[in-house]
Amino acid sequence: MKIVVFGAGSLGSLVGGLLARDHDVTLVAREAHARTVRESGLRLEGVVDGPSRVSPAATTDGTGLEADLAVVTVKSFDTAAAADALATGSIEAVLSLQNGMGNEATLATRIEAPVLAGTATYGAILQEPGVVECTGSGEIVLGPRDGGSSARAERVGETFAAAGLETTVADDMPRRLWEKLAVNAGINPITALTATENGAVLEEPATDLAREATRETARVARACDVSLSNREALAAMETVAKATAANTSSMAQDLAAQRRTEIDAINGYVVERAVENGLEVPTNRTLTALIRTWEQGRGRR
Ligand code: PAF
To answer: Cα of 214 to ligand 1 centre, how many Å?
Structure first.
């Protein structure tokens, strides 16, 4: 299969690197990473089976690409730009493997190809250009963005599973996206603000805050007609925090590197949907305000 991974940061490089063992993969990445991958390949650390060095193609220019599948792994605030670049090429299908809400809709309004929704709970870190480490085993869940099943989703699921990625093809992606949102709302801002690993949200004193942010998200999901109980959301958040306990969340990585975060598409999204539905979500509101304050202080917005 000809696959483009658009946004080869930590997760994109891990997924793209594993797929590159058997497929014709092109990574769209930042300059230094793309150059190193072109010159000396991509080293995969923390993955058990198969070669630990692969040689995908790598470029910084995402326009005019041809592929059977484009896996979009850019930050949520870059989704529109990624979609516009992909729309200039010839892409048969698109899979969003991103944090936050609204990415699939943005892709679908800008690209003609069918869009699959996906979530990923792998912990990954780009150690240096050309080197990605898997720091927490997780799962990829994917399926048609409005729910239901499709032969295309099954095919992509089989391709990912054969590459060694734990993959589930789901027929309830809208609910799965909210469940993942509840996971990220609980883990990401707290680990970012406190510079801790994901496991910190399982311990006092952070755990009460993380659990409340997760519960609030489940409450908002239900107000949006998505069946997600507090218990299910908490179980999902705690399972991911345990499996990736030693991992630095993507938002913690962003703060450490002084980059813009995905707060708007995670806790900020929860606050917006809560307001629309007349709900109070004080924990999500506070976490959003703190991260936005940090971003403004750093001139990142
Ligand atoms: O954003 C992240 O870091 C990831 O979605 C997750 C699953 C929380 C693991 O760190």
So the answer is: 14
Catalytic residue among 2, 75, 180, 242: 180
Best residue for ligand 1 mutational test, from 183, 239, 251, 253 (most atoms within 8 Å of Cβ): 183
Residues 223 and 147 in one domain: no
Distance 251 CA to ligand 1 centre (A): 8
Q: Can you give the pTM of this predicted structure?
A: 0.94
Nearest CA to ligand 1 atom 1: 250
Number of domains in the chain: 2
- Over residues 144-182, the pLDDT tens digits come to 999 999 999 999 999 999 999 999 999 999 999 999 999
DSSP letter for each residue of the chain:
-EEEEES-SHHHHHHHHHHTTTSEEEEE--HHHHHHHHHH-EEEES--SS-SEE--EEES--TT-EESEEEE-S-GGGHHHHHHHHHTSEES-EEEE-SSSSHHHHHHHH-SS-EEEEEE--EEEEEETTEEEEEE---EEEEETTSS--HHHHHHHHHHHHTT--EEE-S-HHHHHHHHHHHHHHHHHHHHHHT--GGGGGSTTHHHHHHHHHHHHHHHHHHTT----HHHHHHHHHHHHHHTTTPPPHHHHHHHTT---SGGGTHHHHHHHHHHTT---HHHHHHHHHHHHHHHHTT--
For atom 10 of ligand 1, the residue with the nearest CA is 249
Among candidate residues 169, 194, 220, the one where a domain is terminated: 169
User: Ligand 1 atom 7: the closest Cα is on which residue?
Assistant: 121
